[in-house]
Records
---
Amino acid sequence: MKKILVLLTLSIFTINFSQLIVGKIINKAENPIQSARVGIENTEIGDLTDENGNFQIDFSNIDKNANLKVYVSEFILYEIKVNDFIKSNREIILRERAINIEPVSINPKKYKYKNFGTSNAKTNYCGYDSEKKDRLFNEYAIKVENKKHLKVKTINVNIVNFEVNGSATLIFDIQNASNGFPDDKKSLTNETLKLTINKNDIKNNKVSLDISDKNIWTNEDFFVLVRVEESLNGKLYFGGNIFAFSKNTYYRNYFGEWKKYSTGEPSINVDVQIEK
C-alpha cells in the first residue's frame, strides 16, 4: 500500500511540475514546416521541428511572460507569450515573408567586385562536434561595415577540420543590424540558404555558396550568419584569424542573446558587387 501511495505521489508531482509540451508549425496551406527553429527568447532553450512540423519544449522552469519565437528564413518571425501559447491549441501558422526586390540595372562602369571578411585562415577557430550536443545549435556571424549600394553574390567559408560521416549541411542568413548585432527581423533573404557538402567538396579548405540569383541588396552594415544542420554526425570546424584585433566574432545559441568577443573572426567572407 505504501508503494502505491509513493508512486501516486510521484505521478502527481510530475504532472504538476513537468510541462513538456508538444507543438506544431504549419503554413497557411496547413503543410508542416520542417527545421523551424523554436525557442524561448534570450535563452538557450528550444527545439527544431521534425518532418511533421512537430516540436517539444519543457516549459517547467520558464518565465510564462517570456516570448516563444519561431524563425524560418522565408517566413515572418513569429512571437507569442509562453503563457498564451500554453493556453492555445499549440498549432502555429507562419506567414510567408515577401521581400520587395526592385529590378536593378547595373552599369558595370559604376560597380566593382570586392571581398569582405576573413579568408584563407587555416587555424582551427570554431565549429561543431555532434558529441557535444549543446554546441550543435551555436550560430556564428561576421559583421560587414558598409555604406554603399551593394549586391551579395557569394558566401565563402574556410573549413579546416571535416571529420563527418556522410555529408553536412550549412545554413546561412544575411541580416541587417539592430544595436550593433544581427536582427532576425531584418533578414535580407526570402528563403533558407543551405549548402550540403561532403569532404570532396572542400577545395583548398574552402566551400562557397553562389547566391547571385537571390538579389540580396543592401546599403548599410550587414551580418553574414552560419550554423550547421542538427543532423551533423561528426566534427566540422571553421578556420579563423585569432590575431585580428580589430575584428569581432558574433555568436549565439538558439534564441540566446547575441554576444561578441574581440581579437578574432571566423573565416567567413562574401564576394560582392559594390558601387565605386
Note: The domain at 2-93 is CATH 2.60.40.1120 (Immunoglobulin-like).
---
Amino acid sequence: MPHSKAALSFEGRRRLVRRCQHRPIAHVAAEAAVSRQCLSKWFARWREHGDEGLHDRTSRPRRSPTATPPQVVEQVIALRKRKWSARRIHLELSAQGVRIAVCTISRILVRHGLNRLRHLDVDGEPLRAPGKITARYPGHMTHLDVKKVGRIPDGGGWRVHGRGSAQAKAADRAKTRGARTGYTYLHSALDGFSRLAYTEAHDDEKAVTAIGFLFRARVFFAAHGITRFTRIVTDNGSCYRASAFTRAVHSFAATHQRIKAFTPKHNGKVERYQQTYTVEVLYAAAYESEQQRRDRLQVWQVHYNYHRPHTAAGDQPPASRLPAGVTNLMLSYT
C-alpha cells in the first residue's frame, strides 16, 4: 500500500484530476511524469464516482465463472464432517452428477480448516484452535536448545580478509586435504515467563554436556529467584532424548516435554532468542578468533538480561520481571 504522500496516492490523484478540469490531460500528465492513459483513467473514475473513485480497487475479479458453486462447497463440508476422505467425497459427488476434482476438494477443506481428520472432533467440528504458549509464572516453562555455528579460525575467516584473500585460499586448500575447522555449539536456556536467558559455548552437543549445562543454568536462574521448575521444554535432539538427560531433568523439575517433531514453533521463545543473538552478536562484526566471539557473546548476554528492552516484558529488560530484581551492572556498561 503506498504511503500518504506518494505521487499517485489518493491525495496525489485528487490534485491531478482537479488540474485536469481546466487544462489538457496530456499537459498535466507530462508535468506529473505519468502516462496520459493512466491520468485519463483516474479522471474518468473521478467524473463517475467522485473522490471515492480515486481509491485503489481490489484486484479480485468481479466474476469467477469457474468457481465452485456455494451449494457444492456446503456439500463437501457436510460430507467431511462425516469423516470422509477427499477421494470418497469426490466419488460421492460424481455419483450425484457433480463434476469436481479431488484437488479442488482438498483446497476447499484447507480453506475451511478441515484438511486434517485428527483435528476434527466426534461431530466433525474443528478440534484444534490456534493459541499462544504462555508461561504463568517464573520457572513454569524453561526452554532449552542448541545452535550450531561454524568456528572462526585463528586470525579471522573470510569475513575479515575477504573471500579471495590468501587466508581464504589457504583455508580452502586445507579443507581439500581433509582439515576441518569444526563447529561451536551454543547451548541456551530461557525462562518462558521473564525471557531471562543463559547461554554457554561448547565444542559438542553430547548428553553429558547438555546435562552439565542444565545444572549450571539452574544455578543461574536460582540466583535470580527462580527456584521452582515445572516444565523443561526441548526439541528432539539426540542429547535431549538420552535417558540420562531425562533423569537429570526429573531430579529438580516436574516434567520433561519434548516438542512435536519438525515443529520448532513449539519451542519458539528460545528459537527467537537464538535469532536475536545471531543478528546482534554472531554475525554483527568481523571477529579474529572464536574466543573473541565467545567473549563478545557473554558481554551481550549481560546486556540482554539487564539492559536491553524486551517486548514480551513490557519494553523492560527480562530481569525486571523477576522478584529478585538482580541489576548488578550500570547502564553505561559496554
Note: The chain has three domains: 10-54, 70-119, 141-321.
---
Amino acid sequence: MSATVTPRVSDVDTMREERIISGTHAEMRGPAGAFVEGQESEARQQLFGKIAPVYDQLNNMLSLGQHRVWKRMAIKWSGAQPGDVVVDLCCGSGDLAFILAETVGPSGEVTGLDFAREMLQDAEQRQKSLPFSLRRRQPQIRWIQGDAQQLPFSDNSFDAATMGYGLRNVANIPRALGELHRVLRPGAKVAVLDFNNSTSPAVDAIQGWALENVVVPMARSYGLGEEYEYLRPSIKRFPNGREQVRLAKEAGFFKAVHYEIGFNLMGVLVATK
C-alpha cells in the first residue's frame, strides 16, 4: 500500500526540532522511549496499554465530561450519514466509534482501529455491555488492532473517518495523513480531534498550568503520573493548526480547515479528499 502523495518528511523533522525546549529534562518527561526516534511507537503502545483500565474514568473527570461534546462535534464535522461505511482510527476504548454507530445506524458499517490491544479489549467489552435495545439499532463494530501509519484497508474504502487524540501519538504524522487520504473515498472527510498546540501565549500558559497542576497529580493518584507527564511534551511537539492544514494538503487532501474548540485548548482538523 502506498499513500497518494509522499509528504516532505524534512518539514516535520524541522518542526520537531523547533519544539525541543533546549533539551530540558522537563521537555523529555514521560515513559522511556516515548520521544526517542525509532522507539516512539512501541513506547506509546505500552503507555496506552497501561492506562487502558482507567482511561475513560480519567477522561470524564479531567474534562468534566466535556470530551463527549467535543467528540460529537468531530462526528458532525466528519460528515458521516446513515448507511455510511466509516472508520475511527486510534479508537481507544471506542467513544467515537460508538457515536459513529449511532450516526450510521444498522444499515451502516463501523470499524475501530487501535494499536493497543488492551484498549480494544475495553472497547469490545463496552459494546457487549450495551443494552440490547441500543445494540439492535446499531451495526456491529469491527475492532482491529493495527497501525494508523500502515492501514490494513483497500483504497477508497470509507465514506467518513474520525481520529480522536491519536494523530499526536503516531511516529510519522505525514504518513498517517497519507494513509487516511488513501482509504477515504473521493469527497469524503476526516475529522481529527486532539489537544490544540496553541500559538497564543495565554492559552498555552493555561493549558500548561492545568496539565501540571490538575491532570498529572490526579493521574499520579492512580499510579500513572509518568504516563500523563507525557501529555505536555507531546502537545508541544504536535503541529499547530496552521501546520496541520498544510500537512493535510501535502498529503493530498483537497481542502483542510482547523477549528479551535474548548476555550482553544482543543482542536479539530477537518480535511476533505
Note: The first helix runs from residue 9 to 19.
---
Amino acid sequence: MSRIAAIGGPGPMASSSPFPLILALLLLVFSLAIAAPENHLVTQLPGFHGAFPSKHYSGYVTVDESNGRSLFYYLVLSERDPAADPVVLWLNGGPGCSSFDGFVYENGPFNFERGSIPGGLPKLQLNPYSWSKVSNIMYLDSPAGVGMSYSLNKLDYTTGDMKTAVDAHTFLLKWFELYPELQSNPFYISGESYAGIYIPTLADEVVKGTQKALKPRINFKDYDFNSFVPFAHGMGLISTDLFEVFFFGSFMRNDRCHK
C-alpha cells in the first residue's frame, strides 16, 4: 500500500478523507518546484578537476519549431542562495559574438590558465569574482548562427535586431517553463558592446509580454544601463552635460550650474 493510501486510514470513511488529496497536491507542487531539467545538468568540464561550487546547466531551447531554430544557453546557479538570488541574463554583442566570451573571459565561474604543453587544454580555476557568487547567471548565444545557436533553415542567419529580440523573448518564456523554481526570482538583463542594442529591445519585448499577461510571468526588474552611459560619453555620442545628468543624477559637477 502506498503512503498516500495509508494516510486515509482503514474503514468506510477512508475514501472521503481529504488527507490523501492534500498530500498528493503537495507532492505535485514539490515535484514542480524542483523541475530543473536533469538532462541539461553539467557535471564536469575539460581542464577542471573537482566539484563545481554550484550546479551548472546547459542545453538548447527551440524558439521556432517550423524552421528548427534553437538557442543555446549555459546557466550557473548562484553559490549563495539560488532559490532567492536574482536571475541575470548575460549577452555579449558583436554583433555575432558568443556570450561564452563573457563566461570565459569576464564574469564566469572560472579563470583560465594556459596549457602546460603547446596545444594542450587550458586549466580551469575558480574565479573568486564570478557573478555566480550572488546570482543565477545565464549566458545566451543569440541570435541563431551565433556561437552554438543554430537553425535548420539557413535563411534564418539573415536577421535583424527586432527578430533577435522576439526570439530571445520566446526563449525566455520557454526557458522559465524549464526552470519554474526560478520564475519568482528577480530577473535582470545585462551585457556589453552591441548588447546595448540587444538589451533594451529585449526588455521592451519582456515588458510587452507582461502587459499581455503572457505565461509564465517574468519577474523583470531592470537592465544594465549605467555601463552604456560612460561608453556613449566616451564615444562622443552624448555631451558631458547629459552624461553627468545620467551618471551623477545632477549638474552639480558642472561649474555653469553655480553661476
Note: The beta strands are 41-42, 56-64, 69-76, 87-91, 110-113, 123-126, 136-141, 187-191, 220-223.
